[in-house]
Amino acid sequence: MVRSFQRGVRQAVMTLLAATLAAGACAQSPSPAAAQRLRIVGGLAGVNQYTRHEEPFWTTELTRLTNGQLSAEIVPFDRAGIRGQEMLQLMQLGVVPFGTAILSQSAIAEPMIAAPDLAGLNPDIATLRRTVAAYRPQLEKTLRERHGIELLAVYTYPAQVLFCKKPFTGLADLGKRRIRVSSPPQADWVEALGAVPVSVSFAGIVDAVRAGNIDCAITGTMSGNTIGLHELTSHVHSMAVNWGLALFGANQAAWKALSPPLRELLTRELPKLEQAIWAESERETGEGLACNTSAAGCVSGKRGQMAEVRATPEDDKRRRQIFATTVLPRWVQRCGPGCAEVWNQTLGPQLGITAPAR
User: 139 and 233 share a domain?
Assistant: First the structure.
């Protein structure tokens, strides 16, 4: 009975959203008599990447850049009644004409797009930049050919790192600890450490730590500070497990409905928004670590007294080994035929890591 009620409520939300966004899509057709207005579904609510960059760009900057020819409304996907796993399908159907989708969540429907943010692949943002640049043509091709989506930008959230209640000096010390994860690749990585992966939502991390259900948690350096992990855990590792890449794209019909000058403007301006979001994520990664450890550079967070565990050469060797022997082969298994070949043509040569054929 309860599940049936939940499905009914959910269907009502989706029907309302579809009607609202479909109306927005109609408004996107070129019209010489009136300004065009877009409906955008953005990234996670409340984080700086959204509040300082996505939202102001669409609600204010776009109108200024186009002298009022184009304006937009934006709502975060997690406040629009949409699950992250559904974004690709809704964009493909045109229910969401313009939307932001987190890769790790969208990978449930399309594992191919998860490749550039697999756990253990990008220990720092410089590596992440190279990885995304090398894989971007494949992302564009996959989204366009399989889903009818035009890739317009790739965003990133800050580094996802390890917070632990008990001391450790490196990855070798984490065996048998219960560690919060948020995706299958993270679970693969943690399991290969000899630890126990525990799937916990972001909202449930604090309660899980307090209850003793987990010993460590993988989450963002600053988001962990925001929810108070600096008061509940004692040590934080500086090496990124992964980042939280997101893509911003458009349903091809909605994209083509814009006039050529407006498409050209968005093609020119969205890379600037992308760069600003990446800079914010890099800054926030460093500030999160600074705040958790009460180091210089903490401006907006809460000061903690955590010990920072810096990655050693042994940690980096272990990370790479786990990625090559566990995370990558399991991604290939989930991804299906052709994914190993795609990896070996794109990221494999750059990293010197060959994906095994299925």
Answer: no
Angle, CA 196 vertex, CA 304 and CA 47 arms, to 5°: 40
Domains: count for the chain? 2
How much is the pLDDT for 326?
98
- Summarize pLDDT for 278-327 with one digit per residue, the tens: 999 999 999 999 999 999 999 999 999 999 999 999 999 999 999 999 99
Do 148 and 208 reside in the same domain of the chain?
Answer: no
Same domain, 106 and 199: no
Identify which of 233, 237, 239, 229 has the alpha carbon closest to the alpha carbon of residue 302.
229
Tens digit of pLDDT for each residue in 175-200?
A: 999 999 989 999 999 999 999 999 99
Nearest to 300 by CA among 78, 115, 51: 51
- Find the CATH number of the domain harbouring 108: 3.40.190.170
What is each CA distance from 274 to 147, 152, 319, 342, in whole angstroms?
A: 22, 9, 28, 25
For residue 96 the two structure tokens come to: 């969401």
Are 75 and 98 found together in one domain? yes
Same-domain check for residues 316 and 337? yes
In three-state form (DSSP H/G/I as H, E/B as E, the rest C), the secondary structure along the chain is: CHHHHHHHHHHHHHHHHHHHHHHHHHHCCCCCCCCEEEEEEECCCCCHHHHHHHHHHHHHHHHHHCCCCEEEEEEEHHHCCCCHHHHHHHHHHCCCCEEEEEHHHHCCCCHHHHHHHCCCCCCCHHHHHHHHHHHHHHHHHHHHHHHCEEEEEEEECCCEEEEECCCCCCHHHHCCCEEEECCHHHHHHHHHCCCEEEECCHHHHHHHHHHCCCCEEEEEHHHHHHCCHHHHCCEEECCCCECCEEEEEEEHHHHHHCCHHHHHHHHHHHHHHHHHHHHHHHHHHHHHHHHHCCCCCCCCCCCCCCEEECCCHHHHHHHHHHHHHHHHHHHHHHHCCCHHHHHHHCHHHHHCCCCCCC
| Residues 252 and 298 occupy one common structural domain | no
Which residues are CB-neighbours of 159 under 8 A, at least 6 positions away? Answer: 124, 125, 220, 221, 240, 241, 243, 281, 285, 288
